Amino acid sequence: MNIRVASSAHNNGYSIQIKSGLLSKFGQIIKKNTNGPVVLLTNKTIHKLWYKDLRHSFEKAGLKEKLIMVPDGERYKNNRTYNQVISEMLENGINRYSTLVTFGGGVIGDLGGLVAATYMRGIKLIHVPTSLIAQVDSSIGGKVAIDHPMAKNIVGVFYNPTQVLTDPNILGTLAEKEYINGLFEIVKIALVRDKGLYEYIYKNINAILIRDTKAIEYLVSKSASLKAEIIQKDPYEKRLRMILNFGHTFGHALETSGQYKNISHGVAVGWGMLLALQLSHHYKLLDLGKHQDKIDLIKKLIGKNKLYNINPKNIWKTMTLDKKAKNNKVRFVLLKGIARPIIQDIDKNSFIKSLENL
Ligand SMILES: NC(=O)c1ccc[n+]([C@@H]2O[C@H](COP(=O)([O-])OP(=O)(O)OC[C@H]3O[C@@H](n4cnc5c(N)ncnc54)[C@H](O)[C@@H]3O)[C@@H](O)[C@H]2O)c1
Ligand SMILES: [Zn+2]
């Protein structure tokens, strides 16, 4: 599948190519679309699993790269690693005609994206996303950033790649937990945007969970197209793009409240979607009695990761500290139906009542 993303921003948009086995052509495609030096940014985990195949493809195309490796993990998505990458690029004479290729999950994409956006005021960027989250979410939409000890993704810009090259086969080596993380984002986009995709997931959940190749390729292509369509209409998150925060308001609060430090992003979003469904029912937007299947599906993905001893007051406080909160109300994405999202400000009582029904 080839998705074209039009853009009125600093470049002329980009294409997202998605195909199982595309990795063997990456060298050829990158060679055709670059003319200066190529920097390949990755981490040890991905290097060990996939570099040999990528190198082989580069070799076939006569493409040489400067390989830069950073440690694996969100905790390295910071200014220190950013500086290390910039130093290595300077030491190796990387110039403004160079291209940076990110080869990894969302962390590598976000970090490398910020490097590309700022190095010599911006060099070409190509994303090769290797995690499910990166393939369906973070490589699309131009948001790039690093974290600060006080806040996540707080130092960043919008910077589009010139290309996104996606091979769903690369997901074969992804840890189960990371795979499920990505599935939550796919369920999210289905619930806010595409009833057909939701029905596909519901019917095929067992094939999806055993990573059936056809199912994965379909899910990645469909979710990537949906995200591309949304960010094209609203690149800077003025309105429509906000629907992608479905499940994230409560999810982020869980992730930042000390008690759930070990919760994975996907599971946190899963609980966030369940709460958003309860709130939608509370405000009489949706009759949850008719949507038990959504609850069952999300709970199936959550598995054993239950919430325990939840402290509603603390969580409410965390949510009101968020940059999107106003006048002691918290902005949520709710549903009037599947693919019928609305943005609504929620008060504390409604939050607490809905939380009790989780
Ligand atoms: N820019 C955006 O729009 C956007 C959207 C969503 C998330 N994000 C960011 O993305 C990050 C989360 O992304 P993520 O979930 O990909 O995390 P990640 O990059 O940390 O990857 C998760 C783990 O999987 C490993 N991995 C990646 N691909 C693999 C593969 N094919 N085989 C085996 N292991 C593999 C990674 O090395 C890492 O250990 C966060 O920092 C988040 O803020 C950004
Ligand atoms: Zn998310």
Identify the notable features of this structure and list them briefly.
single chain, alpha/beta, Rossmann fold, Dehydroquinate synthase-like, alpha domain, two-stranded antiparallel sheet, 13 helices, 47% helix, binds nicotinamide-adenine-dinucleotide
Give a description of the structure.
The protein is of the alpha/beta class. The protein has two domains: 2-174, Rossmann fold (3-Layer(aba) Sandwich); 180-356, Dehydroquinate synthase-like - alpha domain (Dehydroquinate synthase-like, alpha domain, Up-down Bundle). The chain is 47% helix and 18% strand. It is built from 13 helices and eleven strands. The protein has helices at 26-32, 44-60, 79-91, 106-118, 132-138, 176-193, 195-209, 213-233, 248-256, 265-282, 292-302, 312-321, 348-356, and strands spanning 2-5, 14-18, 38-43, 65-70, 99-104, 124-129, 143-148, 151-158, 163-166, 330-337, 340-346. The strands form three sheets. It has a seven-stranded mixed β-sheet, with helices on both faces. Strand 10 (330-337) and strand 11 (340-346) form a beta hairpin. The protein is globular, with a radius of gyration of 20 Å. The two termini are 39 Å apart. The model has no long low-confidence stretch (mean pLDDT 95). The chain binds nicotinamide-adenine-dinucleotide (NAD) and zinc ion. Nicotinamide-adenine-dinucleotide (NAD) is lined by residues 43, 45-46, 49, 72, 74, 77, 104-108, 110, 130-131, 133-134, 137-138, 141, 143, 153, 170-171, 173-174, 178, 181.
What would a concise description of this structure say?
The protein is an alpha/beta fold. The protein is built from 13 helices and eleven strands.
